[in-house]
Design brief:
- The protein is of the alpha/beta class.
- It is built from ten helices and 15 strands.
- A hairpin with a 2-residue loop joins strand 11 (244-249) and strand 12 (252-258).
- Helix 1 (14-25) packs across helix 9 and helix 4 packs parallel to helix 5.
- The longest helix has 17 residues, at 178-194.
- The chain is globular, with a radius of gyration of 19 Å.
- It starts with a strand and ends with a helix.
């Protein structure tokens, strides 16, 4: 079977050091083109990742007219996602849009409408969904192993060692820092595990660690339509140990320490009336796994990746949490 051929929108940062290598590692996938904001940036990216110079583009139209490209990975700042994703879908390309899906719910809806009209795939880059352990936990919850959902918590403290790019410090460009960089991931994990729609959400965002105009600490509480409650905490300015995912149901619980974003960790779980167990969780290449799942989806297979509708629901929660 022929490789799925990717074009990368973005030539620096995560596109360069994480996403491009993930495509190279993923079976059945190949990175063949790039869009950069400057010729030197696009050509430098092409040289580093084995792309022919003729496929190093500086204009979106040129990338989308490139017949060598089957799918694009939108890895630009969030305020550019709508225009780039919609144009790619209309050009007949499948789209993996990096999180957060966009800054506003309206932009997300425009993207899902474009995907439906074009008959092309639109997935959002919540790479935790490719992790086999998290997939197994989501399946166990859906099958009722832990009973009816009562409460879930997801927490990540990841202190940045240096200030983020300027666009992350701009609310209108980024949609928020901690909430848009890390919190959006955690809200997706929360929704995925709960397997239920949210009724309402509220959040407290602050910038006490770095003092920028965008938040570096975000705490969000969500009430779900099935009566369960959940909360996430995302922090980009303080230490807090390993990531943590907790789930409590009427029959049992689990606590995953580590595990998110492919980190190794441990899983403690127990059912009511039985002794709990703790097992090691191996590290996993969630980005490479995400690319492989996307290629399977293009070939018609059902996968666990977040859909465009998941992205819309996610940004609804982000917007409720930040209050705009």
């Amino acid at each position: 079977m022929a490789d799925l051929r990717w074009g990368m929108i973005g030539s620096s940062g995560w596109a360069d050091h994480t996403f491009a290598p993930a495509v190279a590692r993923a079976r059945g996938n190949k990175l063949v083109a790039v869009l950069g904001s400057t010729a030197s940036g696009a050509q430098g990216f092409a040289e580093r990742h084995g792309i022919a110079r003729a496929h190093a583009h500086t204009e979106l139209k040129a990338l989308l007219a490139d017949a060598a490209v089957d799918a694009v990975w939108v890895a630009s700042p969030p305020d550019l996602h709508r225009v780039q994703a919609v144009a790619a879908l209309q050009a007949g390309k499948h789209v993996l849009c990096e999180k957060p899906m966009a800054v506003s719910v309206a932009d997300c809806r425009a993207m899902t409408r474009a995907a439906q009209a074009a008959g092309r795939l639109l997935h959002v880059g919540f790479n935790n969904r490719s992790h086999p352990q998290l997939q197994a936990l989501a399946k166990a919850i859906a099958q009722g192993r832990y009973g009816e959902a009562l409460e879930a918590r997801v927490q990540v403290y990841h202190p940045y060692p240096s200030p983020p790019p300027q666009w992350r410090q701009n609310r209108r460009r980024s949609g928020g820092w901690a909430i848009g960089d890390v919190g959006t991931h955690l809200l997706d994990v929360l929704r995925w595990l709960m397997n239920a729609d949210a009724a309402h959400a509220q959040g407290v965002l602050s910038s006490r660690c770095w003092g920028f105009k965008t938040d570096d600490h975000a705490a969000v509480n969500v009430v779900f339509k099935n009566g369960a409650v959940g909360n996430i905490t995302a922090c980009t300015g303080a230490a807090g140990g390993a990531p943590r995912v907790e789930f409590y149901g009427t029959k049992g619980y689990f606590i995953l320490r580590g595990g998110l974003f492919g980190m190794p960790g441990e899983l403690e779980s127990g059912l009511k009336g039985r002794e709990s167990t703790t097992v090691a969780v191996a590290g996993f290449d969630t980005y490479g796994g995400e690319v492989e799942l996307f290629a399977k989806a293009v070939r018609g297979k059902a996968v666990s990746l977040a859909s465009g509708d998941d992205g819309v629901a996610n940004i609804r929660l982000v917007a409720a949490a930040r209050g705009w």
